[in-house]
User: Fold this.
Amino acid sequence: MHQPSSPPMAALKPWNGLRNAGKLSLHKLTTSYLLAEFKCTVYDCGFHSETLETMKEHFLIHQKPSNQHSITRFSPWLECWYCKNVATSSDNLLEHVQMMHKHCGYQCDQCCYRSRDPNSVVVHQRKYHNELFQNAKILCVPGRQKPYTPMDDDAIRIEMKTNVKGLHCSHCVIRKFIDLDEFLTHISGHNKTYTDCHVCTQPVPTHTMEEHIKLHNIYLFQCVYCDYGTTATAKIMEHVADEHPERMLFYHTRVSRNNFPPFVRGIQRIAPNRYVVCSTQPNEVIHIN
Assistant:
């Protein structure tokens, strides 16, 4: 007997990889679902709301017995639908969404991903929806956009002091470096077989210092929001898009030549017709040609 085929499903949080249990029938992946501030990502549920209390009531449907602790059982409704955060209660989850993602004004049209920076949405779509990338859209969530301001500049500079480790020569302690190549050339110029690592103080063969400091997450490209580093531009942009969707797509490059800025934005080529301006009226969208 012919078995009916399963309806096509969309992965709602593809950035979670193997943990991604949230899937939704494509016919339920509507504009109103994607634009809603609150949404349920339990398998094929599709419930969404703009009202906090309504969402709290809905979560009770999926709630397991109270004698099972929420973080030790499978509770997909406690996972943020916009990022990798997992809350300990529905109240904490809803507070997280309201606080962390209130300025995430650009929404992927293929899943729940949302970011403050449209460039992050493009990076996300290229990574997770590559087969649909050419026709993918960025939904502009009404009233959520927040322009980049000098205050963002100041915040990034402050975070960099904690997150981006400096480069120091252990042979002449007063020397500090921004440029990775300049640092490596400098320590080689001392003609010492070993150089103490300025992070862990262990003696390291000087010619292997570049590889050693990678153990401390020191790379050419650094995240300005955490201590992640990599040698590839594509990887650093994917990291920021995945791990920090509520932030602008900025990263640090360990280069000081030609007045290179301390952090740069990962600008993507975005055609105007990729944006879809969404009205506050349900299901009303305006495509930009």
Notes: The first strand starts at residue 9 and ends at 11. The CA atoms of residues 76 and 187 lie 50 Å apart.
